[in-house]
């Protein structure tokens, strides 16, 4: 009598690829992921073992599998795409003009569906006790009019209040397949945005003496803002300020009444976060002795992503056959940070780079699709370890 072979992530690679390419071809922006959600639900229902909750935090989906008392472990994938016109010449390129999966969320969904596929087989042998929640989260890339992203909405739903631990991954195009990037503690940045309006008195460019030129004032503010990271921060602290937009004036011979400056403030620690915000306010004050006024709006965004040390150790053991890079993920931000602020959790970056690197949010972004096998494998090994941990206490 032949023993039934256990299905592995390698065995389902064609399905992972099919799912990923479907989602890549049919991208949807934040809070608009209706078709994406419907496809996820269709696939989950085909497995026949999950309790499925829909419309969680928008178009979010949570699939629950339980075999009795034990820890409750969450696996999270984000679902939304970006407002980018795809330039990749592939048959699965976006069919939606100006919308593209340029951050790997299509692969995140496919990997989590792959984990669901294998879990639906494992549940039959009843070899584990506990609960697994697969969280397909909407709107990681944007906030709504209340300033809330999908992670905040999912937390507010109460559907993941019972989690003992939560895991997530992110595709990493700057590392090749076979590599996992991990980091303990703060690993992605606080993300704050500022909008500064410098107000003066406009007039004819030929008679500047009758004006109070906000463009001239803005040059001093810009010099101060650009010097903040290098001169106001402790060199051992992590922080960055970048200006992304300057707008002022409508004609070559008219001095405007105002200039608008928009930018982003990134940091790892709350103390540095608060310091940089205060320094932006001080920079704005420069215009007052020059006869100007200003308005400053600060939009506090995602907190720094904090990776739980004990859960990271579980991930290291799950990825022990791969090359592990111990390094922060950079000054990008991730709304998974809202979740790890409430629930012990960690995110790892999964190497997926092609020979020609195509960075995150690039119009030709693509991945080594075989890396999805690694993602499924690491998630499942980690879940098994966490379910075996005593009471799920980490």
TrEMBL record:
The molecule here is called M20 family metallopeptidase
Segments forming domain Peptidase M20 dimerisation: 193-285
Report the source organism.
Halobacillus campisalis
Q: Which domain of life is it from?
A: Bacteria
